Amino acid sequence: MSQDDVVISIRNLVKAFQSTDGTVVRVLDGVTFDINRGETVVIMGGSGCGKSTLLNCLIGEYDIEEGEISYRTKEMDAPVDIAGMSERQLNAIRKRIGILFQSGALFNSLSVSENVALPLQEHSYVDASIIDIVVTMKLQQVKMLEHRDKRPGQLSGGQKKRAGLARATALDPEVLFYDEPSAGLDPVTSTAIDELMMDLSKKLAVTSVVVTHEMDSAFRIADRMVMLERGRVLKLGRREEFEALRDAKQDTLLSDDERLIHQFLNGAGEGPLTDADGMSEFEKLIVSGAS
Amino acid sequence: MSGSAPRNPTDTQAGAGRALGSSLRSAVAAVGDYAGSLLKSARDLVRFVGGVSHLLGETCTWCFRGLFVPGYKLGRRSVVEQAVRVGVQAIPIVMIVQIFIGVILALQMAPTLERYGQMERVADVVGIAIFRELGPLITAIVLSGFAGASIAAELGAMVESEEIKALRAHALNPIQFLVVPRFLATIVMLTGLAVIADVIGAFGGFITSVMVLGVSPSAYLSATQDAVAMKDFITGLFKAGVFGVLISMIACYEGLNVTGGAVGVGRATTATVVKSIVALIATDAVFTAVFFVLEL
Question: The domain containing residue A231 runs over which residues?
Fold first, then answer.
């Protein structure tokens, strides 16, 4: 793949938080990888490994201490580093990306159709009738048309995610971020959401970045996978490489990293992930009440 | 002779010395802890005032853009919705409270005024007190609980459910979208409610004076007209506008800075009401002093 095919480039990303006792903890410690146009990358790892922090850094929600996050959308001649950008500059990037939050994050005072229409109303100057057509189309894509007049409080978990996805795609983004899309869903609904994600990815030709620790879902949707552990990239590779590691016999694993990944992919209770105190640095931060 | 050996005077002195040293250390530690907590409170106050001031600056900037800069939207529908929520729904409560205020004022002042044969002056006292002070202030205090707490709780819940993050993710500014409508609605509605409060409060005093104190209606109305000048009315409305700024800014600041789940939302709601009331009364005191000096 050439550099022109890279839509997000992450180089030596460092993100630290300060706990209440003044200790600074590096939640992300030198993360480096590229996300290529059109692919689905799954970012995974145990609780507290830094994957949600990484997602928040990628969407400009957190400032970073060191490193670079460069975006190259279709209109750009050259990549642009979002670190240190003002809100106004970041907003230009945000209009080209969409995010599905864990709980959907629908605006409770608006109906489903009003939620989907909001980005169109605020960022375009098209007529209300055109917006209505686009909203209908987006809701049809996620099979939520019959629920368009409902408020978020009247929806199930799966329906909220579908509506959130319709809103995230309202401006036809180039990159879609998913924060734990299967969280809180039953296996059947989770599979349905995965299929919707893959369908949208093909139809809209978007790049997808999915943060999850649901392995069934991850192996269903991923082209490439990134495993994080204690804020570092433990392994980056194609889905098939991770499948091979998952299915490998214990005694064929050569390194601690491979044994750790094997434990995680198989959900095993014992192994390198749980040998120490059982808490990641980020989990310790949460317990200590980090600012 | 049975019993222990006599105590060594040196041992007794050493024991007393240790006890004194221990007490002194405890006292110093207690003073240190208290000084530390005072410093923390001072730091929290500075952080709060700075935060609210910064929010006010950004809110005013977005208001200006929405009103005067092409390409920026003000969200008129949202302002109207908030005005109905903040103001229109508070009218019955404000009317009930103010009528009682009028009654209380008239009854409290009556004995003193009667002693000096100035019963009809109850209209002066009720009119000036209501129009200059109690109309806007009591209305603002009512609204800090009715609307301020509700705004803080709503924004806090939005923080916890990632709606604020979702707004930013869609390149929408939370201050433009959420704070500005509440800011404008609170200022406008509090000023309007103050007018209603003035009229209803004066009416409460009127009813009490006529029906209980034996003041003639025409004498009461004439005295009110003579005593209450336009500047009393205008200064009252000016204060109401400023109170609207305080309530909306404190509520939005507390709501947008919620942490810690549902407990945090509850804390923010309580903090909004308490801080609003203190800020309202402190500001009222400052305005009263300033208007006194300026003879307004």
Answer: 3-96+173-288
